[in-house]
TrEMBL record:
The keyword Methyltransferase applies. Residues 58-153 form the Methyltransferase type domain. GO terms for molecular function: methyltransferase activity. It comes from Pseudomonas chlororaphis. The lineage of its organism: Bacteria, Pseudomonadati, Pseudomonadota, Gammaproteobacteria, Pseudomonadales. CDD domains: AdoMet_MTases (cd02440). Gene3D superfamilies: Vaccinia Virus protein VP39. Keywords: Methyltransferase, Transferase. It comes from the Bacteria. This is Class I SAM-dependent methyltransferase. The keyword Methyltransferase applies. GO terms for biological process: methylation.
Length: 275
């Protein structure tokens, strides 16, 4: 296993039980209400459309709340993640909700070694996933290999322009980090996570990368997908820029002042070419 994978996996293994216990992930609401969907998937619904009957795979599924939501919309879902602790929480939630979801442990770059190629109608990637991958080209190749001809990729992700900002600045939007993909990772040392908890992490070091929007689109085109939709959003489902944002009733965060200045996330859809 690569060093970056070991570091990131240790970090996410620690985060998983904290996230599962946090009200932010609404695990108990899934148990109590068989119609409950995650806030992320509820946001996605207008663009996602009807997925009933589709065979889908959720890459980098974490503790499975979005995977479960997609299954509740009628898709036959598989979730894939590299974190054993995350998958333990995902399987527990699936069991508690009596949901027939398969969860598979793997690095996303090895997805085609553990999942059937050309078998999926839908590849779904939720928000906050691509930044943990060093090569968007390798990711796009795996997405293409998993999809059937005519199958669809759906991704909502943090905008690369947002990832390039200095989040420690509360007085201005300051571009201080790479927008484009680089071979060298951004190395972070942080004992906190994005849910409220009084338990500091011990595995604090993570490696991350940005990927420009053009790089993502070009990688998908290179590997046999055609872009069918691209929408930029003025919101993101966490307080990405502390001190500069407000939260709406749907749990989405917006810039407090002049939100039209900056795209915070985007939804991209692509279809694998026939033949």
């Amino acid at each position: 296993m690569s060093d970056y994978l070991k570091l990131n996996q240790a970090n996410w293994d620690e985060r998983a039980p904290l996230h599962a216990a946090s009200p932010d992930y609404q695990a108990q609401m899934f148990v109590d209400d068989p119609r409950h969907l995650s806030e992320v998937v509820r946001f996605d619904l207008p663009l996602l459309g009807d997925i009933s009957g589709l065979r889908g795979v959720h890459l980098q599924c974490h503790i499975g709340t979005d995977t479960l939501s997609l299954a509740r919309l009628g898709a036959r879902m598989t979730g894939l993640d590299f974190s054993p602790a995350s998958l333990a929480e995902a399987r527990s939630l699936a069991a508690r909700t009596e949901s027939a979801i398969e969860f598979v442990e793997s690095d996303v770059y090895k997805a085609c070694e553990v999942l059937p190629k050309g078998a999926f109608d839908l590849v779904y990637t939720g928000i906050g996933a691509l930044c943990w991958l060093p090569s968007v080209d390798t990711w796009a190749r795996n997405v293409s290999q998993l999809l059937k001809p005519g199958g669809r990729l759906f991704i909502r992700e943090g905008h690369p322009m947002l990832w390039a900002l200095d989040e420690s600045r509360e007085d201005a939007l300051v571009v201080d980090l790479p927008y484009f993909e680089r071979s060298e990772p951004l190395v972070w040392d942080d004992d906190s996570t994005y849910v409220s908890t009084d338990r500091p992490l011990k595995a604090t070091v993570t490696h991350a990368w940005n990927h420009g929007l053009g790089e993502i689109v070009s990688a998908l085109l290179k590997h046999g997908l055609d872009i069918s939709g691209l929408v930029e959003h003025q919101s993101i489902p966490w307080e990405a820029l502390p001190g500069q944002m407000r939260c709406d009733e749907q749990g989405e965060w917006h810039l407090q002042h002049a939100p039209w200045r900056l795209p915070l996330s985007y939804t991209l859809q692509a279809v694998k070419r026939l033949g």
